[in-house]
Write a structure and sequence with these properties.
Elements lengths: L3 H7 L11 H7 L4 E6 L4 H10 L3 E5 L7 H13 L3 E5 L5 H9 L4 E4 L5 H11 L26 H8 L1 E6 L2 H5 L1 H4 L7 E4 L1 H7 L9 H16 L4 E5 L2 H10 L3 E6 H16 L1
Parallel strand pairs: 1-2, 1-8, 2-3, 3-4, 4-5, 5-6, 6-7, 7-8
Helix pairs in contact: 3-4, 5-6
C-alpha cells in the first residue's frame, strides 16, 4: 500500500527522520556540522530547520524561555524533520542532565565547565554504568516507552547520546588540559561571549585577545584529537571558526535569524 508518510521521510528534498547517534558518528568521522540555538517555542520553526539542511539545533533552556514540556515537543519535531536536537541545560546538575536525555534528545550541552571535576560530573550524570551513574528508567521516550523491553537500552544510550561541555571562561581555558583527560566528553564547546567577558572585553568576540584565546584552545584540543565546537554570530565568523578546526558550529539564534531575514526584506522593499 502506498504510504505518503514513508515517502515524505524517505525523499532527499523532503523531511527525513533522524537516527539518534548519527550526529555523533558524523563528528567522529571528521565532518563539520552546523545548527542554530533555538529560543522560540515553535515546533513549526524547528521543523523548517530540517527543510533548510541544518544538521542540529541547540534547544536553549539556559538563556531561552523554554519549559521542559515545550522542549519535549521540540525534540520530537526536530527528530521528525532530520535535525538532531541537543538540549542546553541551565547548569551542571544531575537531574537536569537526566531529564534532557530521558526525553530522547540526541545530547546534552552543559554550561560553565571550569575544572576536571566539573567535566567528570557531566559524564557521571549523562552515562550509565560503567561510565557513569545516570538514573535508569526504561519507560521513557529515550527507552522507546519500553518497546521490546528496551533491550540493551543503557549501552545504546551510552553509545549514541552526546555530551557537549562549555569552556567559556579564563578558568576553563586554563584548565583545558585537565578537562581533556575526561573520557565521555564528545565536544569541547568554546563559548566566545563568556570568554570575552572573562578576558575584559565583554561582547567583543572578534577582538584580538578573544580570537587568540579561541585559536589556542582549538589548537590544543585538536592536537589531542578532540572535537571542537563554538558559536558564530554571523557567516564570516563561522568561516573563521571552521578554519580553526571547529566541527560543531552553532550559527546564530533562531529568533535573530528570523529578525535579520525580515530586516533584509524591509530594506530591499521600502
Amino acid at each position: 500500500m502506498y504510504n505518503i508518510h514513508s515517502y515524505l521521510l524517505g525523499q532527499g528534498n523532503y523531511m527525513k527522520k533522524t537516527i539518534r547517534g548519527d550526529l555523533k558518528k558524523r563528528l567522529l568521522s571528521g565532518e563539520t556540522v552546523i545548527g542554530p540555538f533555538v529560543i522560540v517555542p515553535s515546533m513549526n520553526l524547528v521543523e523548517t530547520l530540517g527543510y533548510s539542511g541544518m544538521d542540529f539545533c541547540i534547544l536553549d533552556t539556559e538563556h531561552g524561555p523554554l519549559s521542559i514540556q515545550t522542549v519535549n515537543e521540540l525534540v520530537i519535531s526536530a527528530q521528525g524533520s532530520g535535525v538532531a536536537p541537543i538540549i542546553r541545560i541551565p547548569k551542571n546538575e544531575e537531574s537536569l542532565v537526566l531529564r534532557a536525555l530521558d526525553i530522547g534528545a540526541d545530547g546534552v550541552q552543559v554550561p560553565q565547565i571550569n575544572s576536571v571535576n566539573d567535566a567528570k560530573k557531566v559524564v557521571e550524570s549523562a552515562k550509565y554504568s560503567p561510565l557513569g551513574h545516570r538514573g535508569v528508567s526504561i519507560f521513557t521516550r529515550a527507552g522507546n516507552y519500553f518497546k521490546n523491553e528496551a533491550k540493551n537500552h543503557t549501552n545504546i544510550q551510552n553509545d549514541e547520546t552526546m555530551t557537549v561541555v562549555h569552556i567559556e571562561g579564563r578558568e576553563g581555558l586554563n584548565n583545558l588540559d585537565e578537562i581533556m583527560t575526561v573520557d565521555g566528553i564528545d565536544v569541547l564547546f568554546l563559548g566566545p561571549y563568556d570568554i570575552s567577558q572573562s578576558l575584559g572585553v565583554p561582547g567583543d568576540v572578534r577582538s584580538k585577545i578573544v580570537e587568540d584565546a579561541l585559536k589556542e584552545a582549538a589548537r590544543k584540543a585538536r592536537s589531542e584529537g578532540r572535537v571542537v565546537g563554538s558559536y558564530a554570530k554571523d557567516i564570516d565568523m563561522g568561516k573563521w571558526l571552521i578554519d580553526l578546526g571547529v566541527q560543531y558550529l552553532s550559527i546564530n539564534v533562531d529568533a535573530t535569524i528570523y529578525m535579520q531575514a525580515c530586516e533584509n526584506i524591509v530594506s530591499e522593499l521600502k
